[in-house]
Each structure stands twice: as structure tokens, then as C-alpha cells.
Amino acid sequence: MDIDQALTDPAFFADHDPHPLWQQLRREDPIHWTEGRVRPFWSITRYDDIVAAFSEPNLFTSSRGVVVPSSPELEREPSERMGAGQMMIMTDPPLHGAMRRAFNRLFLPRAVGAYDDPGRRLVAEILDGVLDRGTCDFVVDVAARLPMARGGDGEDLLSVLGNAEINGRQLTEGEIFHNGFQYIIGGLETTRNAISGGLLALIQHPADCAKLINNPSVMPTAIEEILRWSSPITHIARVATRAIEFRGKPIREGDMLALWLPSGNRDEQTFDDPYRFDIERTPNEQIAFGKGEHFCAGAHLARLELRLMMHALVHEVEQIELAGPVERLSSNLVAGIKHMPVRFKRTHAAVA
Ligand code: HEM
Questions:
Q1: Which domain holds residue 318?
Q2: Does 58 map to a domain?
Q3: What is the pLDDT of residues 104-159, one digit of tens each?
Q4: What is the pLDDT of residue 148?
Q5: Mean pLDDT value of segment 274-282
Q6: Ligand 1 atom closest to 179 (CA)
């Protein structure tokens, strides 16, 4: 299989494990010129290089696209219509910092703490609806329903955006639209896939699953390992604002870089035994949430959702196994699971 074709073919990701390709690139050509289907770009596959690119927001801009275009139509779409310069994820410093300070208070640890109780109730409600059935499609019946976390006693996102001031002015309608959309999109697919990917990893690693059931205090490291292992966002792109030699490769102004996050998360130069799923892994500086300026604004919420769901599952379910083939999404952007039939037996221990 030709690496360039594979990495830019969404269907490849549905039917194949992309990790051997990334491993080959990390070893042989870690900054790899990739002849994409729509436009060529540099594939960055090593952890240190991905982190370096994330750390230079003015050299590697977010305002000219943060994903590799998957169709000629998207490539032709003016970047402003896609939210460039308006949606926080597609802005650069100093505007980015001003937006982040204005919007993000709903997603800081204290505000997210208010979702703990309502989130726990929502998880219990979702599981209650399926656990007595003995089987379900975990993605459709469980994981996809949680990221709509509602409740809490705080303000809502649209009011925060509607009242936000950036550099002494209110947001334009376009900015409100794009940023509202961004928080919703950012939170749906990703968390769902981390939850499904996490459960799949636990099913495939029964010893780790037993460890988690017997010792819930390992939950925090387990969550980080689930994030490293599942890496729900497959790539994030940047565009070079000027010519530069990057690890010996001649990057030109306007070149796109694809930072392959799951590859960085399996880099053997950073992680001991990276292909081993280890719920007690420490240290674990996984980069599933990115790094630097644009580090995921919803990371606290995502971790809370993962913790609540995993906690409830390990307490409420004994014996869980796959009941049919796992179907993956055709996408080189989101490492998604579309369907995951599971069979389980409910325990009757109370959820602590
Ligand atoms: C496991 C779940 C999640 C993963 C793996 C994830 C991953 C990421 C990554 C890799 C970035 C960096 C983008 C970049 O550098 O260009 C990011 C940014 C972002 N994420 Fe998440 N995300 C998750 C959950 C969430 C949730 C729950 C929300 C919403 C509440 C959210 C909202 C955002 C926003 C608004 C940004 C842009 C931050 C900025 O530009 O400063 N994400 N996310």
C-alpha cells in the first residue's frame, strides 16, 4: 500500500490499522512530503516534532486551515467561510489568547466540577436504559449519548459568547456562530470515540480491566492511557507562514503540515513500550488533546466524562465482551468507532 495514498484515503482508516505506516515514517522519514489526494503536505510523525510545531503558533499558523482538505470542494472553500480568523481554533496569537480568556471560563476545572453530579446522573440514566438488555451497540446506545452533558448551575455557552468582549468589542454574529459550532463539534465526536475506544481497549486487555475494577484509584492514569491509546483526533494541520528548514527539510511558505497525533502517542523515543496498553503508565505526556496555545479547551470536561463513564461501567458491569465486529469510521481526521456490539452481565453492586 502506498503510504501517501493510504494516509489521505478516509476508507483506509475504516479497514486498516494505520500504526505500521506511521511507525515506518517515524523510522525512515519523520518529516515526510505526502502527495495527498487534494493537496500535498508534510506528514509529521514524531512526538518531539509534533510538539515543536504546536509550540510555534506564529510560524505554523492555525488561521489557514487546521485539517487537511478531504475534497477539492473543501480545498476551494474560502478559509473565512470555514471560520478562519473567527473560530478560536482557527486564530493565532494575540487574538487567540483574547478569545480563549473571554470564552473559556465555562470549561475551567471549577466550572466543570459543577457537571460532576448531573454527569453522574446522566451516566446512570444512560446505563440503566441498556444494562438489563444484556447486549447493546455501545457506540449508539451509550457513548454517543453522554457528550450531550447537560445540567450544572452555571451559565450557558451562548450567553458567554453573546456577552463576551474581545479587545473592547463584542463578538460579530459570525464569531458567535463559528465559536458555538466549534465547542459543540469539538465535544461530540471526540469524547464519544474516547469512551468507545477506551472500553474496546479494556475489553482487549482483560488484565488491565481487572486491575481497574479491583483498584479504582488507578482511574486517573487509566484515563490518560485511554486517551493516548485511542487518540480520537487523527491529525491537526498547520500552515507555514515563512520558509524554514525543519529538521533538515525545506518547508516553504504556505506548505501545510499534518501532525499525526496517534503516531506521536506511539513514538518509541518518547514512550516505553508504546504498543503496550498500560493503565498505570507513568509518565504519560500523551498529546491526544494537542499541546501549546490551542491545547484542547474541553480537556477537563472530556476527562470528567471519561471518568464518570468508566467508573460506572467498571462498577455496574461484570463480564463484557464484543458481540460482533467493530465498525470504524472512514476518516483520517477522527479515529471513530461507528458500531461496537457488546454483550455484558450486570452486577448489582451500588455505584460509589
Ligand atoms: C477526548 C475528547 C477530546 C479530544 C481528543 C480533543 C482534542 C482536541 C485537540 C487535539 C485540539 C487542538 C487543536 C489544535 O491544536 O488546533 C482541541 C482543541 C479544542 N477542543 Fe477538544 N478534544 C476533546 C474534547 C473536547 C470537548 C469536550 C470540547 C468542548 C467542550 C472541546 C473543545 C475544543 C475547543 C474549543 C478547541 C480549540 C481550542 C483553542 O483553539 O484554543 N474538545 N481538542
A1: 3-346
A2: yes
A3: 888 899 889 888 998 999 999 999 989 989 999 999 999 988 865 744 444 678 78
A4: 54
A5: 97
A6: 35
Report the pLDDT averaged over residues 299-308: 94
Preceding peptide of 93 cis, ω within 30°: no
Axis crossing angle, helix 206-214 with helix 299-316, rounded to the nearest 10: 90
Question: For residue 79, is pLDDT > 50?
Answer: yes
Ligand 1, atom nearest to 301 Cα: 27
C-alpha 227/C-alpha 237 separation (Å) is 20
Which atom of ligand 1 is the closest one to the Cα of 54? Answer: 15
* Cell numbers standing for residue 192: 464519544
Which CA distances in Å does 6 have to 34, 42, 92, 273? 10, 14, 31, 25
In a domain, 151, yes or no: yes
User: Is there a domain that residue 226 lies in?
Assistant: yes
Range 245-249 average pLDDT: 96
Q: Are 283 and 270 spatial neighbours (Cβ–Cβ below 8 Å)?
A: no
Note the maximum CA span of the chain: 62
What's the structural domain count of the chain? 1
Identify the burial level of 159 via C-beta atoms within 10 angstroms of its C-beta, where 0-12 means exposed, 13-18 middle and 19 or more buried: exposed
CATH at 205: 1.10.630.10
Our answer on whether the CB atom of 102 is closer than 6 Å to any ligand 1 atom is no
* Helical (H) or strand (E) element with 84: none
Say if 176 falls within a structural domain. yes
Q: Which of 342, 344, 351 is nearest to 310 (CA)?
A: 351
312 lines ligand 1 (CB under 6 A): no
Grid coordinates representing 260 are: 499525526
Q: Is 234 in the pocket of ligand 1 (CB under 6 A)?
A: no
Distance (angstroms) between ligand 1 centre and the Cα of 66 equals 12
Nine-digit cell string for 299:
480537556
Mind listing the pLDDT tens digit for each residue in 180-239?
Answer: 888 888 888 899 999 999 999 999 999 999 999 999 899 999 999 999 999 999 999 999
CA quadruple 47, 191, 201, 137: dihedral sign: negative
The residue to mutate among 58, 90, 296, 306, having the most atoms of ligand 1 within 8 angstroms of its beta carbon, is 296
